[in-house]
Amino acid sequence: MLSADVRTVVRSRSGDRRTRCALSGTPEMRGHRPPLSVLYMIESEGLTKRYGDKLAVDGLTFTVRPGIVTGFLGPNGAGKSTTMRMMLDLDHPTSGQVRIDGRHYRQLSNPLAHIGALLDAKAVHGGRSAFNHLLCLAQSNGIPRARVHEVLDTVGLTGVAKKRSNGFSLGMGQRLGIAGALLGDPEILMFDEPVNGLDPEGIHWIRNLMRGLAAQGRTVFVSSHLMSEMALTADHLIVIGQGRLLADTSMAQFIRENSRAYVRMRSPERERLLDVLRDAGHPASPAGEAVEVDGVSAADLGELAARHRIVLHELSPQQASLEEAFMQLTAGSVEYHAHSAEQRPMTEQRSAAPEDGLPEAPPPPGTPGAPPPGTPPGGGWGAGWRNPKRRS
């Protein structure tokens, strides 16, 4: 934990400067919560957006709080990008509102000092160097020139600061976008898919950066489709589907409520172990060579086995991943479904069949026109357009 001497200087709505500790757990903060005017938050109330007949966002109400990393999750088309654009007044809500520290984004006189955002790393003038791109942002927000050098060093682009951004790789473009978000040293940071194009070192760096910013008491709001990375980064989750709020909860509670947790046991005396578990009233089911038990801790099961002198080769609590819990919760909200070669829609399968309705048998292996070894039934992906008979 950082010491109580680590502080940030913030400006309240009335304009006076106040010093606050970076962490809520420091001695000066315990029992002395600062007023809400000092706590920088994103507040969404009944946020709704329609595009013609399409309801993109449907009455979203949530609060993104400081001191933690809040993950923003949802399937493709769920309304995440639209919601983030409305936060920055890039899109106007049909109804409802979203506030940045109690105000609309358009009411902020120097917005980069309040909220830094990365929504589209490609939204850069390709003819400008990395330094000049950031310098334009700094000059328009009253930020000192020296700050440009600081953020370039932070994101690792000092060596290419004078190069034009149109020659940057995807990962370098992401770093430049992150530098722009950090430029005003804001209390609120918002990132949309920040790890896109980053190499493993860059992913590790941005993860630690976001967690470090949250540890300073800042508000960090991040959207990503990489569940494995989100599981390592976020403390709290806001999940939406088809524009509606599905979950607003901690990471641990989200996984616990949307997945199955059980204990896996393996023993050379499996049948005897099953009898002991059932006699003790513990629901147990065979799973191959193992036994799965729900609703009992691993410690209690280990003690039960020890009392009956049953040798265990495995005693391991099993918990679903964030990805599995996410898939479980959003199964009914996925708008765009893909199909594997073996799961082609029936309409496509019918159109691919000959006129008599019977499937055409493939030529025997080794004969002209035979599919290559290992080809799945039906010919695999693209079989329809590769077969001239089916195209005619």
UniProtKB/TrEMBL annotation:
Residues 360-376 have a biased composition (Pro residues). SMART domains: AAA. Keywords: ATP-binding, Nucleotide-binding, Transport. GO terms for molecular function: ATP binding; ATP hydrolysis activity. Residues 338-347 have a biased composition (Basic and acidic residues). The keyword RNA-binding does not apply. Residues 1-29, 338-392 are annotated as: Disordered. It comes from the Bacteria. Pfam families: ABC_tran (PF00005). Residues 42-267 form the ABC transporter domain. CDD domains: ABC_BcrA_bacitracin_resist (cd03268). InterPro entries: AAA+_ATPase, ABC_transporter-like_ATP-bd, P-loop_NTPase. Belongs to the ABC transporter superfamily. This is ABC transporter ATP-binding protein. The lineage of its organism: Bacteria, Bacillati, Actinomycetota, Actinomycetes, Kitasatosporales.
